[in-house]
């Protein structure tokens, strides 16, 4: 592989990351990936002596860093809403995000008729997540713990965990698919025990 090919590859990688970033629903992930792509493209621009392109991409990196810092210093305020399985809000959320729920939890049973507790997390009136399960003697068997793509940054889960003790929940068990869920479960302190995960509050 000659030098020219390597230089062109750097440019293509930078461009690809910038483009891919705009496909991301999460604003935080978008800005992080966009920044990485812009840094790589800046390097490419300097190598080929395209200084206007380099300056533009450096500015993009600085703008992204500014907003990432701003987002990290902003406390998002959530509202905790109790639901039941007949609640219209619950049905609305599940229907709206059915495809994404099935993608996040491969093989999930979308029949939640056995759930006896449900909670929604909202931000400024917008539903951002739901938790459904069966609560018996302080043990909550999780059937669904879902966050919408825009708010999938662990903050909703942490907020829920802080509210559940007030609802009589002492521990939680999750037996569903962890294919796309391992990082979330680990971040919230769930411990893997054989074929399921458990968290004691």
How many angstroms does the end-to-end distance come to?
A: 56 Å
Arithmetic mean of pLDDT? 87
Major sheet details = 7 strands, mixed
- The Cα radius of gyration reads 21 Å
Biggest sheet strand order reads 1-2-3-4-5-7-6
How many alpha or pi helices? Answer: 7
**What is the count of β-strands?**
7
Helical/strand content category: alpha+beta
Describe the global form: elongated
Low-confidence runs: none
Q: What is the highest CATH level, the class of the largest domain?
A: Alpha Beta
The total number of structural domains is 2
Oligomer: single chain
CATH topology heading of the largest domain:
Aminopeptidase
Q: Beta fraction of the residues? A: 15-25%
Fourth CATH level, the homologous superfamily of the largest domain: Gcn5-related N-acetyltransferase (GNAT)
Name of the CATH architecture of the largest domain? 3-Layer(aba) Sandwich
Share of helix among residues?
40-55%
GO molecular function: acyltransferase activity, transferring groups other than amino-acyl groups
Domain N-acetyltransferase: 76-201
Protein name: N-acetyltransferase domain-containing protein
Organism: Butyrivibrio hungatei
Description of the molecule:
The chain crosses the membrane at residues 6-28, 40-69. This is N-acetyltransferase domain-containing protein. Residues 76-201 form the N-acetyltransferase domain. The protein is α+β, with helices and mostly antiparallel strands and 201 residues long. It is built from seven helices and seven strands. The protein has a seven-stranded mixed sheet with strand order 1-2-3-4-5-7-6, with helices on both faces. A hairpin with a 2-residue loop joins β6 (191-193) and β7 (196-200). The longest helix is centred in the N-terminal third of the chain and has 22 residues, at 51-72.
């Amino acid at each position: 592989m000659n030098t020219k090919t390597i230089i062109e590859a750097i440019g293509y990688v930078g461009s690809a990351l910038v483009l891919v970033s705009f496909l991301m629903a999460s604003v935080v992930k978008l800005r992080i990936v966009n920044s990485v792509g812009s840094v790589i493209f800046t390097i490419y621009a300097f190598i080929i002596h395209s200084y206007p392109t380099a300056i533009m991409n450096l500015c993009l990196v600085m703008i992204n860093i500014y907003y990432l810092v701003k987002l990290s210093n902003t406390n998002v305020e959530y509202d905790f809403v109790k639901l039941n399985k007949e609640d219209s809000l619950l049905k609305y959320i599940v229907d709206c995000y059915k495809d994404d729920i099935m993608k996040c939890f491969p093989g999930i049973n979308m029949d939640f008729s056995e759930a006896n507790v449900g909670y929604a997390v909202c931000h400024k009136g917008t539903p951002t997540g739901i938790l459904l399960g069966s609560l018996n003697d302080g043990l909550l068997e999780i059937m669904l713990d879902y966050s919408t793509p825009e708010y999938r940054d662990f903050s909703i889960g942490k907020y829920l965990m802080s509210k559940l003790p007030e609802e009589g929940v002492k521990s939680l068990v999750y037996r569903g698919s962890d294919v796309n869920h391992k990082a979330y479960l680990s971040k919230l302190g769930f411990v893997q025990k054989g074929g399921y995960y458990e968290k004691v509050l």
